[in-house]
Automatic annotation (TrEMBL):
Entry-linked SMART domains: AdoHcyase, AdoHcyase_NAD
Alphabetical list of InterPro entries matching this protein: Adenosylhomocyst_ase-like_sf, Adenosylhomocysteinase-like, Ado_hCys_hydrolase_NAD-bd, NAD(P)-bd_dom_sf, S-Ado-L-homoCys_hydrolase_CS
The protein's name: Adenosylhomocysteinase
Annotated ranges, domain S-adenosyl-L-homocysteine hydrolase NAD binding: 175-334
GO process terms (BP): one-carbon metabolic process; S-adenosylmethionine cycle
Chain residues that bind NAD(+): 141-143, 206-211, 227, 283-285, 328, 337
Names of required cofactors: NAD(+)
GO molecular function: adenosylhomocysteinase activity
């Protein structure tokens, strides 16, 4: 086996939920006559999802959703899987990136799976001639869901999309534990610096931010949270963290991680305030949370190491990891979320793909929640793989919970 196949083999043994789904897919072929277009992080865990969809009868066309997250050996291994066509390439140019998107769409797909909504955006702008053939899609990440809900609110989303990111089995595990562990691990392995005792700034206290704050605190960091939502800010305060504006945090922080999915979180007014040796990284989706163009335009000096760009600003060194892209995937040794976490997220993707293939024609354009039975199925399969049993409601308990006139 080549290195890509070895990575995929390793991932499979820790993805029992997707393994159970694959067994059914291989037997029933529920995705026959389906062309699936995918723009995801092309690495081993994603490859196991792709294999599962192909085992279900789908013809799968995949490219990357981030120029630095593709693992070329995995992309090569995917091209040897029957029914799979991979166009992803690591460190591709902007032109090559969108060229991969277009190659995927050239297949005239019926179902899309996105991480960031680039496929759907392209379909609704540059490739509108393909829209009539699309049954529906699935979206993996918070940023993509924000963009899709905006599209839907404007009446511009022309097919149904399942918000895979927004269901409990995704948010509570992938976002909290997956981003929390993998982003922190990437910072540590890239910089080899200590977390304990440092002022650790988390921008945004959504599911990703709270997971990251919890993990950093567990290693002894003094955690600062910045927020725009007063409710989340209060929650962070009650969870024991320091809450302040980024203007204040910039003066104090040693390590910064943005998790907002928005743009211009750390900007030109913040960099001159920072300590010498400050480390900046991003765990949101796009590389717009840290203002890299400002650093490039105002640098007094520059040093480059594997995964670390160091800018000299007013005599102080400020280091940015992974060019401001997803730190858990884009640093040289970034492996993304832990395998067991992505087993759950990709199980949701597989079952939602099956759902949209079967039900998409009945739905109008818009964003839809993951059906509750799919979320429960994934949780149940995971518990079964762990040999964990839970209670069930008795008939009387069910009646009590659905009645208004049985006691108090």
């Amino acid at each position: 086996m080549n290195t890509g196949e070895l990575k995929m083999s390793w991932a499979r043994q820790y993805m029992p939920v997707l393994g159970e789904i694959r067994k059914r897919f291989e037997a029933d072929k529920p995705l026959s006559d389906t062309k699936i277009a995918m723009a995801l992080h092309v690495e081993a865990k994603t490859a196991v999802l792709v294999e599962t969809l192909a085992a279900g009868g789908a013809e799968v066309y995949i490219t990357g959703c981030n120029p630095l997250s593709t693992q070329d050996d995995v992309a090569q291994a995917l091209n040897s899987v029957n029914g799979v066509h991979c166009f992803a390439k690591r460190a591709c140019s902007v032109e090559e990136y969108y060229g991969g998107i277009d190659k995927v769409l050239d297949a005239n797909p019926t179902v899309t799976i996105d991480d960031g909504m680039d496929l759907i955006h392209r379909l609704h702008t540059e490739r509108r001639e393909l829209l009539d053939n699309i049954t529906g899609g699935c979206e993996e990440t918070t940023t993509g869901i924000h963009r899709l809900r905006s599209m839907a609110a404007d009446g511009k989303l022309e097919f149904p999309v399942i918000a895979v990111n927004d269901t409990p089995m995704k948010r509570c595990f992938d976002n909290v534990h997956g981003t929390g562990e993998s982003a922190l691990s990437a910072v540590m392995i890239t910089t080899n610096t200590l977390i304990g005792g440092k002022w650790f700034v988390v921008a945004g206290y959504g599911y990703c931010g709270r997971g990251l704050a919890k993990m950093a605190h567990g290693l002894g960091a003094k955690v600062i949270v910045t927020e725009i939502d007063p409710r989340r800010a209060l929650e962070a305060h009650m969870d024991g963290y320091h809450v302040m504006t980024m203007d204040e945090a910039a003066k104090t922080g040693d390590i910064f991680v943005t998790t907002t999915g928005n743009t211009s979180i750390i900007t030109g007014r913040h960099f001159p305030l920072m300590k010498d040796g400050a480390i900046l990284s991003n765990a949101g989706h796009f590389n717009v949370e840290i203002d890299i163009p400002w650093l490039e335009a105002n640098k007094e000096g520059f040093e480059q190491r594997d995964g670390i760009d160091t800018y000299v600003i007013k005599g102080k060194k400020i280091s940015v990891l992974a060019e401001g892209r997803l730190v858990n995937l884009a640093v040289p040794k970034g492996m993304g979320h832990p395998v067991e976490v992505m087993d759950l997220s990709f199980a949701l993707q597989a079952l939602c793909s099956e759902y949209i293939k079967n039900e998409g024609q009945k739905l109008s354009g818009g964003v839809y929640e993951v059906p509750n039975e799919i979320d429960i199925t994934v949780a149940s399969l995971k518990l079964s793989s762990l040999d964990v049993s839970i209670d069930k409601l008795t008939e009387y308990q069910e009646k009590y919970m659905t009645s208004w006139d049985i006691g108090t």
